[in-house]
TrEMBL record:
Organism: Methylomagnum ishizawai
Entry EC number(s): 2.4.2.1
Protein role: Purine nucleoside phosphorylase which is highly specific for 6-oxopurine nucleosides. Cleaves guanosine or inosine to respective bases and sugar-1-phosphate molecules. Involved in purine salvage.
Keyword field: Glycosyltransferase, Purine salvage, Transferase
Oligomer status and interactors: Homohexamer. Dimer of a homotrimer.
A GO molecular-function annotation: S-methyl-5-thioadenosine phosphorylase activity
Keyword match Amino-acid biosynthesis: no
InterPro entries linked: MTAP, Nucleoside_phosphorylase_d, Nucleoside_phosphorylase_sf
Residues binding substrate, per UniProt: M185, N209, W210, A211
UniProt binding sites for phosphate: T10, R52, H53, T186
Protein's name according to its UniProt entry: Probable 6-oxopurine nucleoside phosphorylase
Site, Important for substrate specificity: residue positions: E167, L221
Family: Belongs to the PNP/MTAP phosphorylase family. MTAP subfamily.
Length: 245
């Protein structure tokens, strides 16, 4: 049984070097996942791939059915999830193209269906979320990067905004004061739902742009796409090592 899943984000709707074996349409009590679960071989290992924003990429971050996505992965027996995410860089070492494995989260999103534990409960459940990412998986990702020689920043707080608009300069300044190193729109409730589902979960973030107000001028989609292409190519090398190592 396939135990590991990769959730691909913006810039990773399809996994390079992934030989697809089959697609599974999974329905869950929370609705339909963003896309079919794609089963295949990735550098010698069985892997399930899920495109967070759909394939093609049409579902904005606040409309992703995170519960259906995580529930579907759990249902088919997945135990470990590597979530790939495009982010904006806030901290000085988080420039465009940088790869990083965050270790903390602040959730600024709102109105998202964010828990499995709300209806028909036998008892109220509060998961521990002190360390939102699985440390073993984090270290394995960092180790894979080190083995390839591709720099990957260890740790940093991921601030999750609601989107789909990018942030104001003042919002980023506040997030910086809060201690955020990165800003993205999909980190939550995905990470919390993974914990609730008992899945080991870590995030590989690729910095697509300097966050709002960090440099002069507008943030353009063209810049984001160019930086992402570079970062995702590096990440593919790290993931290859991670999976095969
Ligand atoms: N803000 C939020 N999410 C993002 C950004 C950003 O600047 N870049 C890529 N995802």
């Amino acid at each position: 049984m396939t135990r590991i899943a990769i959730i691909g984000g913006t810039g990773l709707t399809r996994l390079p070097d992934f030989s697809i074996v089959r697609r599974a349409v999974v329905s869950t009590p929370y609705g339909t996942p963003s896309a079919d679960l794609v089963y295949g071989r990735f550098h010698g290992q069985d892997v399930v791939f899920l495109a967070r924003h759909g394939d093609p990429h049409t579902i904005p971050p606040h409309k992703v059915n995170y519960r259906a996505n995580l529930s579907a992965l759990k249902q088919v027996g997945i135990e470990r999830v590597v979530a790939v995410a495009a982010v904006g860089g806030i901290r000085a070492d988080m420039g465009p193209g940088v790869l990083t494995v965050p270790d903390q989260i602040i959730d600024y999103s709102y109105g998202r269906a964010h828990t499995f534990f709300e209806d028909g409960l036998e008892h109220v459940t509060h998961i521990d979320f002190t360390r939102p990412y699985n440390e073993t998986l984090r270290q394995k990702l960092l180790g894979a990067a080190q083995a390839t020689g591709i720099p990957m920043v260890d740790g940093g707080t991921y601030g999750c905004t609601q989107g789909p608009r990018l942030e104001t300069a003042a919002e980023i300044a506040r997030m910086e004061r809060d201690g955020c190193a990165l800003v993205g729109m999909t980190g939550m409730p995905e990470a919390a739902l993974a914990r609730e589902a008992g899945l080991d979960y870590a995030c590989c973030a690729v910095v697509a742009n300097w966050a709002a107000g960090k440099v002069e001028g507008e943030i353009t989609l063209a810049d984001i796409e160019a930086n992402l292409q570079r970062g995702m190519a590096d990440l593919a090398v790290v993931l290859k090592r991670f999976i095969s190592g």
